[in-house]
Write a structure and sequence with these properties.
Oligomer: single chain
Order of helices and strands: HHHH
Shape: elongated
Largest sheet: none
Radius of gyration: 16 Å
């Protein structure tokens, strides 16, 4: 079923995000940043498709908005926690490198 495929694909994308590690090598870091950017863009496109398809049951096949792809992806997926970890990491890096 298409909905199961979408949800499994989403989880695969989320799990792949953790593979992108910050490297000291500039070339590897550029590649990782492109990978993260491409993955987040794909996730954004999935959510946009779901909102367009919402009147017909969305991409996961339900008209119950609490079970929309967006609801699942923010409540049952680990993407939100991954994003918060990244934000916290950036804030720590900023305070480390900022000068008073």
């Amino acid at each position: 079923r298409f909905s199961k495929t979408v949800l499994e694909g989403w989880e695969t994308l989320v799990s792949n995000l953790s593979r992108f590690q910050q490297e000291k090598d500039e070339e590897a870091m550029d590649t990782n940043l492109k990978g993260v950017d491409n993955t987040l863009s794909l996730m954004e496109n999935i959510l946009e498709l779901d909102s367009i398809a919402a009147p017909q049951g969305g991409i996961i096949g339900t008209t119950d908005h609490s079970r929309s792809a967006a609801a699942y992806m923010t409540s049952e997926s680990t993407i939100v926690s991954w994003l918060f970890v990244q934000i916290e990491s950036l804030q720590n890096d900023t305070t480390t490198y900022s000068t008073p």
